[in-house]
Amino acid sequence: MKNDEIALALEAFKNDKLVAIPTETVYGLAAPLNQPKLIKKIFELKERPFFDPLIVHGSNLEQLKPLVKEWTPLCDHLASIFWPGPLTMVMNKTELVDDMITAGLDTVGIRIPNSELTISFLEQLGIPVAAPSANMFKKVSPTKAADVSQVFNEKDVFVLDGGESQVGIESTIIKLTKKSIQILRPGMISKAQLKESLTDFDCTIVDYAGENIVAPGQLKEHYRPEKEVITIFADTIDEANEILQKNTISEACFIDLDDNPTLVARSLYKSLREASQGSHQAIAVCLPKDTQNDDSWSGILDRLIKASAKVLTKD
Ligand code: TXA
Ligand code: MG
After folding, report:
1. pLDDT digits (tens, 9 = 90+) for 100-157
2. Which of 106, 117, 284, 309 gives 162 a disulfide partner, CB atoms 3.0 to 4.6 angstroms apart?
3. What are phi and psi of 90, to 5 degrees?
4. Given the CA of residue 111, which atom of ligand 1 is nearest to it?
5. Strand order in the sheet with 129-130
6. What is the spatial distance between Cα 73 and Cα 19, in angstroms, rounded to a whole number?
7. 50, 51, 55: which to mutate for ligand 1, most atoms within 8 A of CB?
8. What atom in ligand 1 is closest to the CA of residue 21?
9. φ, ψ dihedrals at 280, nearest 5°
10. DSSP secondary structure code for residue 108 in this structure
């Protein structure tokens, strides 16, 4: 069964189709590194601008190492702790990576996703794939096969069904230099976890604070569902309602959030999709105020704020 699906996916590439791959974060829309025509098709189907670089996914280190210039002991260390998993490392690229993938940058983002099906697929393909999230540009990322089939036609995209994504939001992206790690996009691998992994290395962690968009996940408007999302920082539902009323929003559908960030991330996009089907004026998401200072929530807050038309607090 699994091998039949993989055979069909391999066949799809030969027929100029893209393959949607399951990963633990979100589904990706993949094309092999050696098929530039298909890589171009990713941008076309997603309506994604060519200035927005793609992440390269491999099944093992042997597939990925030749794509980057300096694979250091720090890279080995991070890979051994976090891969397969939701961490993307951005490093100087070699000529094996086409400029279309990196949008002309000298660097490439690479990761090994934690999905058995995708890893087997990539092993049989024998070459890494470039894959952004399998959604239209700026829309909510897919966390199950049906989310992808709803948007893309089967004549263009073969969907490998690996069940629901367990992490639920996109990978943490870090840029590696000799003595520092810069977080370009927060995710469920937190700054604290990265820091803890670096105790034996002379390496500091810096948050991204620049003005230029080096990861378009940093575009302000991103991950937007069909309906207006309002994020409210409040400690009780009464306080949240009061804030809504003050802002003359009368009809909002509240998304109930767990207090465990792992569970919240897992269901976030699914909840946003479901809530945007309803008849309410807006979707309201209420979070306790202290989540703003809690590193384990930073990936979730990043996505929510980018999905939101308004972010409200009491004062
Ligand atoms: O979890 C994920 O990362 C998912 C799954 C499919 O792996 N992929 C994903 O891809 O989120 P995408 O294309 O939706 O977001 C990738 C982000 C973009 O914002 C892009 O700008 C950034 O990665 N990126 C890729 N290469 C980069 C580079 N060389 N330098 C800086 N940012 C880069
Ligand atoms: Mg995306």
Report:
1. 999 999 999 999 999 999 999 999 999 999 999 999 999 999 999 999 999 999 999 9
2. 117
3. -100, 125
4. 7
5. 157-159, 18-21, 28-32, 129-130, 55-57, 107-111, 87-92, 172-176, 180-185, 204-207
6. 33
7. 55
8. 6
9. -70, 160
10. E
